[in-house]
Model the fold of this input.
Amino acid sequence: MPAAGDTPLGKRQHWPIYAAAEKHRLPLCIHAGSTFHHPTTANGWPSYYLEDYVSATHAFQSQVLSLMYEGVLTKYPNLTVVLAEAGFTWLPQFMWRAVKTWRGMRAEVPWVDRAPSEIIRDHFRFTLQPSDAPPDPLQMEQTIEQIGSDRFLLFSTDYPHWHFDGESALPDGLPASLVQRMMVDNPLETYPRLKETLQ
Amino acid sequence: MSSTLLDRAPARDAKLGLVDCDVHHAMRSIEDLYPYLSAKWRQHLATYGSRQSVPFTAQSRYFKSAPALSRKDTWPPNGGAPGTDLKFLQEQLLDRYNIEFGTLHLLTPTGMDQRNQDLGPVMCRAINEWQYHEWTQRDQRLKAAIVVPGEDAAAAVAEIEHWAGNPDFCQISLVSHTIEPMGRRRYWPIFEAAVAHGLPIGLHSSGFNGHAVTPSGWASFYAEEHQEVAMSQQAILTSLVCEGVFERYKALKVVIVEAGLAWVPSLCWRLDRQWERMRDEVPNVKRPPSEYVRENMWFTTQPMDEPERPED
Done:
C-alpha cells in the first residue's frame, strides 16, 4: 500500500485486509508513494521533488501512529508491517515523542495497552534503503543502539531505482551482528513463506 | 522533567534570570479585542463570526487532553481561563522562576487564519494593541510577537512596519500551519521585513490552513495530531531550506516553538543525503541543508522528546 493514501491506514475500512494478512501470515508492506489526494505535507504542496521525498518520512510516521492508535495492532497481534524506503534513523526521536505523548494521552486510546516503542519494535520492519546515514559512523552506531532492536532492519537495494548503490549498499557504522541478521535472519523471520520454501 | 529543570533555575539574586521563549497569554473571550476594534468590525464579528478553513472555530479540531490545554493548577483563583490573569501569571511563573524575559505566544484567536482578507489585518492590529496595552505595558518582562496576516504578505509587512520600532515586541509571529509551505515566494516579503528590522520569526505550532493533518487525510485522535504538528514544523524547515530562503536572507532567524527538537539531527541527515543526489533540482541551495539549519534556526525546549535511556 502507498505511504500516503486517501485515509489513514488505521481506519476501520482497511481492517479486513489486515485480518486476511494475519490469517495467511503475509506481512503488510507500506512503500513510499502517494495517491496525491492530500497535500504531501500538512502545510500544503511543496515545490520540489526533494521536499516530497524528504517529507515522505512523515507519511510513513503518520501511518505508524494511525495503525497503533486506531487499535489495529491490538486487534491483529500477529500482523507484521514492513515500511519500505522510509528511512529509519528517525526512529529514536519518533519513539521518544510517541511514548511521551502516549503517557499523557492514553486515556484517549485505552486499547493501546503498552508503550508505542514496544509496539514498533514488535510489529514494524524497515528496509535499508535509503539509510539517511549520519556523517559520523559513531552516530549510526548510537542510533542503532537507541532503536534497541536487531530485528527491525531488512537488507534492500532498491534496484533498479537511483538509490541502488551496488556493492556499497551498506552504510558505515552498522554493527556486524546487525548486518548478519539484516541480510538473512530478519527477512526470513518477517516473510515466513521464504523460510518454508527453504525447508 | 520540566519541574526538575525549573528547580535548578538560577537563584533569585542571580544577575540575569531565565529567558522563557514560550509563554502563553490568553483572552477571556473575543470581546477582549473589542476596545481595539471599530464599531463596524465589532458588529461584523458579532454577526458573522470568525470564518476560517475549519468547521470548528470556537475550539480545536481535536479534543485536547486537558481543558484549555493547561495544567489544573494554572486556572486563576479569581476566575477566567489559564493565561488570562496577569497577576497570577506573574506569581506563578515570572516571579517564582526568576524569569527575566518571557516571550508571549497567543494561540487564539488569530488574524492570519481569517478568510476575510479585510478582517485578517484588522484582527492582527487589534491583537497587537491588546498585547501592548494589556500585557507588555503592564509588565516589562513580557515581550510580545508582532502577529501578522501572513497569507497576505503586503498586509503583513505593513503590520511589521507599524510595530517594528516598539521595544515591547521582540519577534514576528506567523501561525505554523500556513496555506503553502513556508519557503514559497509568497512569504518572502515577510522575511525581507524581518531581516530589515532585525526581528526573528517565531513559529509556534498553531493555525488552521484547511489541509489534512497527515498526507493520508485526517487522523482520528489527538494523540496522533499532537505528533503530527511536529512533522508539520519539519516540513517548514525543509521548505525554508529547499527554497533557498536562507541563501537569500542570510540574517534571517527562524525560531520553531513547541515542536520538540530531537528530530533535527535525523531530518538534517536525510536532507543532506538527498540534497547530494538531487541538488540540481534546487539550485538556490548552495550548501548542505544542515549548515543553514545550524546558522538560521532555533528550537524551544518544551516539550522535549525524552530519550528512553537518560544518558542519550
User: Anything to note?
Assistant: Chain A touches chain B through 70 residues (CB under 8 Å).
